[in-house]
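Before a colleague's protein record goes any further, I have to sign it off. My question to you is simply how this chain folds and whether the tokens agree. I do not need a full report, just your reasoning and any doubts. This is what I was given:
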Amino acid sequence: MGAEWERGRALGKRKCCEATHAMNSPRPLSAFPALLPALALFIGACGSPFAEAPPVADSTLVSALAELHLAEARLRSGAPEAPDTMRVALPPGVRDSILARHDMRYRSFRAALDYYVRHPEQYTKLYARVVDTLRAGQEARSSGGSDDARVAPEAFRNPRGGD
């Protein structure tokens, strides 16, 4: 009786193991056709130009960056030359007041910069506009304009194109 019991127990274990193995074994791509449309939508959304927009309007960011650069240059021109650094950081209060004039907080400014880190082609175009703004301001000051004048190229003065 003991031998039959052992043999029955061994058969039971094998059946149990076979059933567990059948439940845990992967099915050969039977679910793949059902996931294909979802995968196509996901990949399509990743490459869509409308998937992500800058968190701050380009014209606002151009103006803010130009003003931040001017403030940094003014600060640097009054500071003694520091041999170990090429940059003088703006005090947070100055930075935040400049951003506030453009209806921006530091968090949204950082989010905009992070966006452009992920989109370097757009950042290059945006920064070309910052340089144009700075040049226009420099030309206006050199032709007799106020040192504090904030001059923008014509394209930024009236973004809607109307009067």
Notes: The mean pLDDT is 73. The chain has two domains: 2-46, 58-157. Residues 58-157 form one domain. The CA atoms of residues 75 and 88 lie 7 Å apart.
